[in-house]
């Protein structure tokens, strides 16, 4: 996907308003500028930021359309991918979880500058986020699947949609997970990379556990 194709895809999928385009453009500018101070994205992806990062994040919204009301929790948000992008394109409350101080400061600055009043940051480890029932949980380059699910299980219930881009090893990770975890899992193709995939899951529980907490 070229940068021109990435912008065209966003326009077609979201009917992006002038205000939202301005927010996305500003976010990209902030992201690239901050690269001089911290390694927010791989340097090799700088020329392809719209395809590799903005669209790659935005596509997750399409897999969460059936989610119920409630918060979207993004684990290990880092540079705000997908959290900031989703918050720009959606009104759903967004909680980004990040433990690194520089990343927390960066995300708070972006939220303030873009006026994303429905987004907030939890500064700390995923395991320490107060228990809740998220409508959607996402994570991009956060942790291997078993660790990811274990660390965030207390943030979910049986209705929570897990939307997890896992690159080219998605199917292998999912097969390795099955003996220890149960739920409804399926793999969706990525629009930005024909060889990459997104794991979408619901009713996720450790194997043998009958139901979520009340």
Describe this structure in words.
- The chain is α/β, with parallel strands linked by helices and 214 residues long.
- The protein has a single domain, classed as Vaccinia Virus protein VP39 (Rossmann fold, 3-Layer(aba) Sandwich), CATH 3.40.50.
- It has 7 helices and 7 strands, in the order αααβαβαββαβαββ.
- It has a 7-stranded mixed sheet, with helices on both faces.
- The longest helix is centred in the N-terminal third of the chain and has 17 residues.
Topology:
Layout: H1 3-14, H2 18-34, H3 49-62, E1 72-75, H4 83-89, E2 94-98, H5 101-114, E3 119-123, E4 136-139, H6 145-152, E5 161-167, H7 170-177, E6 181-189, E7 197-206
Parallel strand pairs: 1-2, 1-4, 2-3, 4-5
Antiparallel strand pairs: 5-7, 6-7
Helix pairs in contact: 1-3, 2-4, 3-4
- The tally of helices reads 7
Dominant shape:
globular
Estimate the helix proportion, in percent: 25-40%
Structural domain tally: 1
CATH architectural arrangement? 3-Layer(aba) Sandwich
Give the termini separation: 44 Å
Q: According to CATH, what is the class? A: Alpha Beta
Unreliable segments of 5+ consecutive residues: none
- CATH fold label: Rossmann fold
In a few lines, what is going on in this structure?
The protein is α/β, with parallel strands linked by helices and 214 residues long. The chain has a single domain (3-206), classed as Vaccinia Virus protein VP39 (Rossmann fold, 3-Layer(aba) Sandwich). The chain has helices at residues 3-14, 18-34, 49-62, 83-89, 101-114, 145-152, 170-177; strands at 72-75, 94-98, 119-123, 136-139, 161-167, 181-189, 197-206.
């Amino acid at each position: 996907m070229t940068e021109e194709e990435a912008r065209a895809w966003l326009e077609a999928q979201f009917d992006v308003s002038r205000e939202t385009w301005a927010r996305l453009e500003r976010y990209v500018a902030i992201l690239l500028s901050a690269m001089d101070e911290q390694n927010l994205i791989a340097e090799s992806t700088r020329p392809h930021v719209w395809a590799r990062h903005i669209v790659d994040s935005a596509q997750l919204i399409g897999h969460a359309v059936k989610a119920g009301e409630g918060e979207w929790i993004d684990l290990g948000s880092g540079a705000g991918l997908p959290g900031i992008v989703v918050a720009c394109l959606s009104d759903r409350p967004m909680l980004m979880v990040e433990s690194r101080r520089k990343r927390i400061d960066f995300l708070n600055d972006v939220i303030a500058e873009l006026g994303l009043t429905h987004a907030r940051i939890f500064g700390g480890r995923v395991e320490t986020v107060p228990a809740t029932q998220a409508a959607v949980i996402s994570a991009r380059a956060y942790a291997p699947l078993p660790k990811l699910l274990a660390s965030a299980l207390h943030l979910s219930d049986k209705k929570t949609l897990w939307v997890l881009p896992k690159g080219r090893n998605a199917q292998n990770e999912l097969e390795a997970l099955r003996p220890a975890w149960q739920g409804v899992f399926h793999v969706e193709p990525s629009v930005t990379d024909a060889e990459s995939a997104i794991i979408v899951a619901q009713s996720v529980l450790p194997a043998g556990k009958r139901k979520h907490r009340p």
